[in-house]
């Protein structure tokens, strides 16, 4: 850690520095607590563990201690993970990928509200979630007058800092001090009927300020840390991901050739994970150039594109880098300034901006059905995986959206293409293009029946195609007056039930 | 009809006046045809019937004659109806409520693309639907230079007139000439990356022009008519609708009291039909005043509110009045000028505006499930009813949304609350409040499990509650590691199957 409190130049807030356990003592049973953090970046790294200890001690004394936990999106084992292990969370929103927390949601212990990320801040302002008692927000530095240099994500921090009764700041010396100037925090959003247009017409336009603000009088504690972000490992694309990427790149090339988009495309949004990184690698290897991203997360693949010049610049709300990516970013941080901008997730995912800019959205899925409905969140209809995140914000308002997935999971036991999805996150009205390693189904302007043929023939694993076609044909034949979206209701979800019963959706195992 | 061509003051276009059959002869097999019309208002009244005759004659000669039919939304028996009866439609978008057309969609003859109304125009510009060969658009009058006074709906007319290769205009003398000044047609929308903010911050603000424009060189025919709009009958609220309305009004009153919205609420959107009209009647009988509507359709109920002063003004894209409503509107038309504004459906339903203005959305549904997913379009999962229309545009981006329905249909044989909906149009992430005659379920900030309790207890018909609770409890018990949204997949759709098999969802018949 650098010299004590070297990053706290506000004299008032310097007096509030204390150890994490003293800060955690200011959080009470029943509080709603809004913490920073998005894709494992910029979450508080000391207070959650201290709070875990406080909760555990209370539980050992036979006392109740549970909080409502609100975040930007996913955090890390030392935030969501420790609080879940303390059994100290009653409700959780708006997105989670922590396995310990997920298990408690799926066991019924934690009530999870899975919200569109562009909605979470405004639903809090609207009073839909109740009062926010405490904000715990990681920052890079504290300037005089309550100005805060944000850290590696912005997420919902503006809202938590504004709305909370009490604020705890974590100043993380591990975050590069050079972050100052990488952020654009918009303070113009009002409540209806006082809202104004968002005057942003280019992804890299600044419409806000480089700092978060906090009322110093609300800051009850400042804790100093020196710990790295979660930094999930990043693996090189496998053959399946590379094949998916090839289909996407070829399709984009054809769209440009058909005159449906400019040569440097339109702003790109890319979900996280290896398939998304493979698509970025595919774009980097292509002759596309001068691209721009309007997205949620800067992952390793985007650094490649920025370095090669394929990507001119990227607007997001968070980093989501590997250890290697972080090292690389920190080494060349001055070269990225002005080419990377982090915004509040309310703005990075805003429907108004996504539609205006004409974003090309690329997101993963868990399963799609033959008629083009997409499930992004639920395993076999009941268990949550992570949450809808920003996929709905982007896909619903995009110029063009892609949903990307390997055609099978669990070594072929699960088909990603099913007769009927077991949960719908993106409706048939909203899905443009589905891609697997086998091919790409362009669903634009097609009726449900026409979509079925295309999805089965282009995307399904060949081993599942005959059964999918057989279902489609029998559904068509069964009710001659119900052929808009023909389904056999007593069989529509039988693939999932078979998986639960036998460990495979197929009948040939 | 008034004096011949008295409403065509453009000398060039006066030379293009011809009978409907001569105009219909300019439409060819295979053409995509974009017609005017929204909620049975402002559709062409002569050319479709003439085209029906042309199609029928071709079919009798053994020749193929089918068109792609694009509209604003629903039209009427003498537009959708006659073309369906001629078996002359291959594809249809974006919304239909004509029973003859519906039967052909459900028989598999017509390919139907059920699109969000805020998307239909832009997806056409983006090239997703292919080329538009002909536009057939009803207008009130033709001014010099290709300026057109729109009629009782605007819908997608701007787009059809701009994009079509050939244009046929129907000048309808039945439409009041006083319509001039009732419209605001926005001509500022560009394709990405050239889009600008929509600078509208108040529902009644004018951002466009009172006229549609057409290039006179593209106008191949002008047909004069003198026929009334469809004008569906309007019935007074029954006890069920009145009970639903009471719950909504009480809830809004409580929201104001809780400080979550202003005393004159926020802009209202209201779907069509008797439940919607009942809610309007409920608002009219309440002490709410100075309200404003930002909606799709002006129906009879809105005239009541405008007359009483409960409603200050209304922005929409169309009228949807009864015969009585039309007579009343025409009698006092000058009093409504400046208080009613019709816009393109791209603008009336625009996500950017719906979110900015903070619209309160009220729409019907076919069924909702215990976890808050809503089906607005499909009967028993397979057969289309009408289409999603604007419900997704409004609900997804609203400040607050309501979904309204009687708790049962078909004399109690169908429960509007089911274990799992057979089709999803509005996902669990997007549904705020469900209302039946029994009560109101406020789902904001609730997990799926908490929603289930509330929906069953507040909204379900008491006769179906035990079976719904039993399902919920058995689903909870079945898989202790899958309790986020517990479902029994082999039973989830069994209520629908039972209805198909026995004529009732209940087991007590």
Q: What is the fold-level CATH name, i.e. the topology of the largest domain in chain A?
A: Glutaconate Coenzyme A-transferase
Taking the sheet with the most strands of chain A, its summary is:
9 strands, mixed
pLDDT averaged over residues of chain A: 96
Q: From the structure provided, what is the oligomeric state, counting identical versus distinct chains?
A: homodimer
Low-confidence stretches of chain A: none
Biggest interface and which pair forms it? A-B, 91 and 91 residues
Number of domains of chain A: 2
Which value, in Å, is the CA radius of gyration of chain A? 23 Å
CATH-wise, what's the superfamily of the largest domain in chain A? Glutaconate Coenzyme A-transferase
Label the structural class of chain A. Answer: alpha/beta
CATH architecture of the largest domain in chain A: 3-Layer(aba) Sandwich
Strand content of chain A: 15-25%
CATH first level of the largest domain in chain A: Alpha Beta
């Amino acid at each position: 850690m650098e010299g004590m409190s070297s990053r706290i130049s506000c004299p008032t807030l310097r007096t509030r520095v204390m150890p994490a356990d003293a800060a955690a003592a200011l959080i009470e049973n029943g509080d709603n607590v809004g913490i920073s953090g998005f894709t494992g970046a910029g979450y508080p790294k000391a207070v959650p563990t201290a709070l875990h200890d406080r909760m555990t001690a209370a539980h050992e004394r036979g006392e109740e201690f549970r909080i409502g936990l609100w975040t930007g999106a996913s955090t890390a084992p030392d935030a969501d993970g420790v609080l879940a292990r303390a059994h100290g969370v009653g409700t959780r929103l708006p997105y989670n990928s922590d396995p310990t927390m997920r298990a408690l949601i799926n066991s019924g212990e934690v009530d999870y509200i899975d919200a569109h990320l562009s909605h979470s801040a405004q639903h809090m302002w609207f009073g839909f979630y109740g009062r926010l008692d405490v904000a715990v927000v990681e920052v890079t530095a504290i300037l005089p007058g309550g100005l805060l240099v944000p850290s590696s994500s912005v997420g919902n921090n503006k809202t938590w800092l504004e709305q909370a009764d009490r604020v705890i700041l974590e100043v993380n010396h591990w975050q590069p001090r050079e972050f100052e100037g990488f952020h654009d925090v918009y303070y113009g959003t009002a409540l209806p009927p006082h809202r104004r247009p968002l005057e942003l017409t280019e992804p890299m336009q600044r419409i806000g300020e480089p700092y978060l603000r906090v009322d110093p009088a609300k800051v009850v504690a400042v804790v100093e840390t020196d710990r790295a972000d979660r930094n999930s490992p990043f693996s090189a694309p496998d053959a399946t991901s590379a094949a998916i990427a090839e289909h996407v790149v070829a399709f984009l090339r054809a769209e440009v050739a058909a005159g449906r988009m400019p040569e440097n495309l339109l702003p790109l949004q890319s979900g996280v994970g290896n398939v998304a990184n493979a698509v970025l690698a595919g774009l980097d290897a292509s002759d596309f150039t001068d691209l721009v991203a309007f997205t949620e997360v800067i992952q390793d693949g985007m650094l490649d594109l920025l370095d090669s010049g394929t990507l001119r610049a990227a607007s997001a709300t968070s980093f989501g880098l590997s250890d290697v990516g972080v090292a690389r970013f920190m080494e060349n941080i001055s070269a990225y300034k002005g080419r990377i901008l982090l915004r509040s997730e309310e703005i990075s995912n805003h429907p108004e901006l996504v539609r205006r800019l004409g974003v090309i959205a690329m997101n993963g899925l868990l399963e799609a059905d033959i008629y083009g409905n997409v499930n992004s969140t639920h395993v076999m209809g009941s268990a949550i995986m992570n949450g809808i995140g920003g996929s709905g914000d982007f896909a619903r308002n995009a110029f063009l959206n892609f949903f990307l997935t390997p055609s099978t999971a669990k070594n072929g036991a699960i088909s990603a293409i099913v007769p009927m999805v077991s949960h719908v996150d993106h409706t048939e009205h909203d899905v443009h293009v589905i891609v697997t390693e086998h091919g790409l189904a362009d669903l634009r302007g097609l009726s449900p029946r026409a979509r079925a043929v295309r999805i089965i023939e282009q995307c399904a694993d060949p081993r599942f195609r005959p059964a999918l076609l057989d279902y489609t044909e029998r559904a068509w034949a069964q009710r001659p007056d119900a052929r808009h979206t023909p389904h056999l209701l007593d069989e529509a979800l039988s693939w999932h039930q078979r998986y639960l019963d036998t460990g495979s959706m197929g009948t040939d195992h």
